[in-house]
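Re-run with default settings, no changes from the original entry. Doing this only to confirm the output is reproducible before filing.
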Amino acid sequence: MYSCQQVLVNKNYELIAILTFLCEESHKLTNMGIYYGRQLFFKFHKTLGKFDFEKVYKNNYHYKVLYSQAAQQILRTVAESFRSYYGLIIAYRKGKITDRPRIPNYRKKGGMATFING
């Protein structure tokens, strides 16, 4: 069983700067994964597996800056959102849902994303 622990950061500016940098890199890696997934879907109508993103981005700067477990978790979350989208498309074609599903969209530029530091 996993648990979550909240850590409050005091006014330690070095730590805040490091955490901000890691959150920004996480955001960029998320957008890169979404871009790759969207391009494969639009151009080749190809689906992605859980580990496909890691194979593509393992030599990327944004992937290397983060801890490997955190980067893998970010890309697996992106893969999970696309897998959910593919499942919704199948359900839409079978008539189980009425609203047409939308492909995962990019995150806003200049933002931060959470990352898991394990």
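The chain has four helices and no strands. Helices lie at 13-44, 52-57, 61-65, 68-94.
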